[in-house]
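Schema walk-through. Below, the input block comes first and the output block second. Nothing else is stored per chain. Lengths vary across the set, and this one has 206 residues.
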Amino acid sequence: MFITLEGPEGSGKTTAVENAVKRLTEMGYEIVRTREPGGTPISEQIRNVILDKANTSMDGKTEALLYAASRRQHLVEKVWPAIKEGKIVICDRYLDSSLAYQGGARGLGVDEILNINLFATENTWPDLTLLFDLDPQIGLARISKNANREVNRLDLEKLEFHNKVRNTFLELAKRYPDRYVIIDASKTQEEVAKDTLDAILSRLCK
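--- output ---
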């Protein structure tokens, strides 16, 4: 199974999934946890270029293509082999992030960015996408208080940009209701962790 985690900046998806991975592993599931952009040496190098705060002049289409390139390499080296071996892959961000950030917030068009990614991924869709929904103002405030979290180029965008990201994610949830589950990320960490695990177990038991 291929599970992806999506949401605006500071939504707490990384923290929530730590508990889920621990519990699933205890239950006997073999989990591969990974992230985008990144997850493999080549993809991590591309990540460094994309998120470098010095690269403020990066063109939107360049950004979109770099994400797709990193995604392709990640699938080839890590995701596809793990799924073939019967493992559960839990990935922090995937193609929906490109649709929300570049397609929606950058204004490049959701369908245009989707076409790029369908080519890169050979139509590989997640079995389940958890959307950690949160008001961007709250998420950005969380980031500013967390000294241990990396602050990347996208974190520096204006609030309007992050509102567009959130709105596009919510539109995608309506477009793909069979694979999307919305998690209310404004709840306590314990509640969000429980909702995350429940959503994954519900899909695994189908």
